[in-house]
Please model this.
Amino acid sequence: MYSTKKINDDLYWVGVNDRKITLFENVYPVTRGMSYNSYLLLDKKTVLFDTVDSVASLQFLENVSHALGERELDYLIVNHMEPDHCANIGAIVARYPSVKIVGNAKTFVMMGQFFDFDIESRKVVVKEGDVLDTGRHSLTFVMAPMVHWPEAMVTYDTVDKVLFSADAFGSFGAMSGNIFADECDFESEWIDDARRYYTNIVGKYGMQVTNLLKKASALEISKICPLHGPIWRENIGYILDKYIKWSSYIPEEKGVVIVYGSVHGHTENAAEVLANLLGDRGVKNIRLFNASMTHYSQIIAESFKRSHIVFACATYNMALFPPMQVILHELAEHNLQNRAFAFIENGTWTPASAKLMSEVLDKLKNNKIIGQNVTVKSALNSDSYAQLARLADEIAQDVKQV
Ligand code: FEO
Model:
């Protein structure tokens, strides 16, 4: 049975939810599933905005068919060619063979790589600022390269002020009957998944997101329709403010993330002791994570949220303990900036992990190191405890100044 939702008088959500998925992109845990949003505009011409993942083709096609009724589909606008959105382009073409497909030059290069139907006779190539009139509505195309792929673009309805934002403003998580952000308690139910989605999927491309936000700031926006997660129609400034912070790598709040990679528990003990010493000094918003038990995507999201990050790691085969190596590598890949780092190393014969950790993070810009590296030899003793206490003093002082 169809499962669609009305957004405006002539605009419908025809997307799908997937609650069987465990790993989005086969890498990010999504315990609340995923939504794949698609939208249908019933103007003088009918327009479908993107398709959905192959996992839910039947539901999607039924939704489109129901919302169209007896009408033909005139246009399919492809804002993004990643398969979680483009997978059903071939199915749409097969079902509505007269459909015109709207995309930019890069869109069609990718489409030719993913599909082998006749693209040439259907394609409408657009560039920045081009307009498609569909009757009452006027759709303007805005290029958004690397948000999240090179061909990504967004579409703005200048009549109803709706921004079809592709991956931008999306979130992990399936929706449950409420498709608008104002129908949920976004701050408690969604923001952590929205942050983890943004920081991991497009966190690396802050400059490109900033460019898109600059273009968006010139638009009057009444609704944001992303390709994942809830639609924004109220309090849009809230999510825009988050995006401004995330894309410019500004911490949302003062706080300390402590991540530890511990083989037999002694590095964990040092991390726990530091957390308590920080708490004793009045530091709030301390979060302690076991690298072996925490997916790196969560550490990335927490690190984008908070101002200070402490890495505590055992030396392992004269290298970094593998779970910490993954986390550090991913942080380096996501361009984290404007943070304060501190390091705790452990080793029974040659502690080397502090130097190795700082080498991984050296490629990042505009970060600083706080205090002296703390060296633990096997287990905390009075000397290394004193080092930890000095580090706690320096971090607590620095947190106050953020
Ligand atoms: Fe949701 Fe970049 O695809």
